[in-house]
């Protein structure tokens, strides 16, 4: 199992990126939460990884933090949740927001993620309830939910909404970068991003 990679970031086209490690280019799929923290191409980067082996392919997934990888691995244990859907969940919300959703049994927030239907959301609430306790920080996360950065959740919600409107993830990333980081209301972020898209 490949647990981590450190090398030069040579390409990034969400959800794919490539890291050159000693002359070998590793193709990796990563959630948008990881892409937001990536440096410019040509710069060294370190990622935690998880290898998924299928009959027709070996797919390497990369994560900016070990918490993201841990959640990804737990999501894969849920019935009918594969790597693609797990990646969508991590792209649509932060680890903390996901833990809060499970703790509060909030299916409405989960179904806003592209690809997550009502039945899948309910299954996640049931099957992840005990799994997230293994993170050990759920109580602290829930207690500090009100003190969390509202902008982070707003960005994730805006990302999900724009993807739902038909924009490709790579395009959504560019649109969100055009919005002033000080804006922390989801509706305003979406409005500014759509204005930028219309003006181009």
Provide structural commentary.
The protein is an alpha+beta fold and 200 residues long. It has 3 domains: 60 residues, Nucleic acid-binding proteins (OB fold (Dihydrolipoamide Acetyltransferase, E2P), Beta Barrel); 80 residues, 5' to 3' exonuclease, C-terminal subdomain (DNA polymerase, domain 1, Orthogonal Bundle); 51 residues, Ubiquitin-associated (UBA) domain (Helicase, Ruva Protein, domain 3), CATH 1.10.8. It contains 10 helices and 5 strands; from the N terminus they run E-E-E-H-E-E-H-H-H-H-H-H-H-H-H. A 5-stranded mixed barrel has the order 1-2-3-5-4. Helix 8 crosses helix 9 and helix 8 crosses helix 10. The longest helix is centred in the last third of the chain and has 15 residues. It is globular and about 45 Å long.
User: Mean pLDDT, as a whole number?
Assistant: 84
- What fraction strand? 15-25%
- Please state the structural category: alpha+beta
CATH-defined superfamily of the largest domain = 5' to 3' exonuclease, C-terminal subdomain
Biggest sheet, open or closed, and with what strands and sense? 5 strands, mixed, barrel
Number of individual domains? 3
Q: Specify the helix fraction band.
A: 40-55%
Q: What is the CA-atom radius of gyration, in angstroms?
A: 17 Å
Mind telling me which CATH architecture of the largest domain this is?
Orthogonal Bundle
Terminal residue distance = 44 Å
How large is the count of helical segments? 10
Q: Residue ranges: pLDDT <50 for 5 or more in a row?
A: 137-150
Shape: globular
């Amino acid at each position: 199992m490949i647990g981590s990679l450190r090398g030069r970031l040579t390409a990034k086209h969400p959800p794919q990126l490539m890291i050159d490690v000693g002359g070998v280019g590793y193709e990796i799929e990563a959630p948008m939460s990881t892409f937001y923290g990536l440096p410019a191409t040509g710069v060294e980067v370190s990622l935690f990884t998880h290898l998924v082996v299928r009959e027709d392919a070996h797919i390497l997934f990369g994560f900016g933090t070990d918490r993201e990888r841990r959640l990804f691995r737990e999501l894969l244990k849920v019935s009918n949740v594969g790597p693609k859907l797990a990646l969508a969940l991590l792209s649509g919300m932060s680890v903390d927001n996901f833990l809060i959703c499970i703790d509060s049994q909030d299916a409405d927030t989960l179904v806003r993620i592209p690809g997550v239907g009502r039945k899948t959301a309910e299954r996640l609430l049931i099957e992840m309830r005990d799994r997230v306790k293994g993170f050990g920080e759920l109580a602290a996360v829930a207690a500090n939910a009100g003190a969390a950065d509202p902008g982070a959740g707003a960005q994730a919600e805006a990302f999900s909404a724009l993807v739902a409107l038909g924009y490709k993830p790579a395009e959504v990333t560019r649109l969100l970068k055009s919005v002033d980081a000080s804006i922390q209301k989801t509706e305003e972020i979406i409005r500014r991003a759509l204005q930028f898209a219309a003006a181009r």
